[in-house]
Amino acid sequence: MKNRLILVVAMSLVMADATIAGDYFNGKKVYAMNCVSCHGSNGRSMDPSVPSFADGDALFRPDQDLYEQVRSGSGTMPAFRGVLSDAEIRDVITYIRSL
Ligand code: HEC
């Protein structure tokens, strides 16, 4: 019984991994207004404790994970739930993936 439940959860995670299509140009605006102060222009952060996106390392995770990170925050990064709409979060992820 328990195994079956785990399988169902795993399957829904796989399905949730499908790349989220967002609007690059809107994402760029959202980034400039909300993220650039920490993550830097072009995703090159000046603070070693803040991940850079330019080298791609920090983004080697499914969109859904990044989405949750932006919604919930982590460490010194604030949560953007209630600040950005779901669509804006998708757009900004599309943008940072392009850096
Ligand atoms: C106040 C500074 C700050 C702001 C503003 C900020 N971040 Fe962050 N961000 C961080 C820090 C610090 C971490 C590392 C958190 C950790 O290690 O737990 C992080 C981590 C991340 C990660 C995860 C990278 C990884 O794989 O570890 C993503 C994605 C991210 N930020 C996206 C964004 C986006 C998109 C915005 C704008 C909507 C944003 N951040 C705004 C400081 C910030």
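^ heme C complex. The two ends are 44 Å apart (CA to CA). The chain is about 55% helix and 0% strand.
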